Give the backbone structure.
Amino acid sequence: TVSDEPVGDLPEIPGEDGEEPSDDLEPDDEPPAIRWSVPPGWSTTSSPSPLRLATHRVPHVSGDSEDAELSIARAGGDTEANIERWVGQFTQSTAPRRTEKSVRGLPVTIVAIEGTYGSGMGTASSQHAGWAMLGAIVRTPGLPYFFKLTGPAATVHAARSAFEAMLDGVQPASP
């Protein structure tokens, strides 16, 4: 599916857990800057927050009992601060692995981390041991887009090539 909606997701978006969003994290009214195709087999589901542009379920692999989730949002904020926020959602974690690339002239930062994941969303936040995250920040002339895939490590690892293919297919939106 090709989405003409803007995308991006922060690890912990203010406003999802009842706290007030800061000015640089509020959704914007800018027209979409990019479009992308969701990998086959990843289903669209309702987003738990109006700050998310899209939420997709990634089917779990054999041995995992839960699906992974891809959230897409567009918000403000510095790349480094957002990466730190993502890393801060993990404890007992591996060192984050980071790669940089360019897709059709757009700078993309990809971060991978594993450990015990705590979503940080509200007081009912639970800890998930053995989870992983693939996060990508696509910087556009306006606000950046955030793609965040979290779930059981084996499922996230199995989805990596589809996640990267999705990022490689990102295109500037038509004027």
